[in-house]
Design goal:
With about 90 residues, the chain is α+β, with helices and mostly antiparallel strands. The chain has helices spanning about 5-20, 25-30, 55, 75-90; strands at about 35-40, 40-45, 60-65, 70-75. It has a four-stranded antiparallel beta sheet with strand order 1-2-4-3. It is elongated. It starts with a helix and ends with a helix.
């Protein structure tokens, strides 16, 4: 892998981390009917592919049941830990 490829990979990782760090107002999404709370999960009330990218990037688990698709999101503290590791690594 040459320096150009490494730089491109670094840029891609940095943009993904920045996207995940974009704040998400879950209560607003519930209020607007996009998501509904289901315990520690959220039900996706629209086509999951239609979720805004910064929200979709936070999904860490997906499950289907008789009521439809439900997802779990990476916690804010998990994202902050990830960001800290990335910064420490020089990203």
């Amino acid at each position: 892998m040459d320096i150009t490829e490494l730089q491109a990979m670094r840029d891609q990782l940095t943009s993904q981390v920045d996207l995940r760090a974009t704040p998400v107002d879950y209560s607003d999404l519930v209020k607007r009917g996009i998501l509904s709370k289901a315990g520690v999960w959220y039900r996706v009330n629209i086509n999951p592919r239609a979720l805004p990218k910064h929200i979709a990037e936070r999904i860490c688990e997906v499950a289907n049941d008789s009521k439809g698709v439900k997802v779990r999101f990476v916690s804010e503290s998990g994202i902050q830990r990830h960001l800290k590791k990335m910064r420490k690594a020089g990203f």
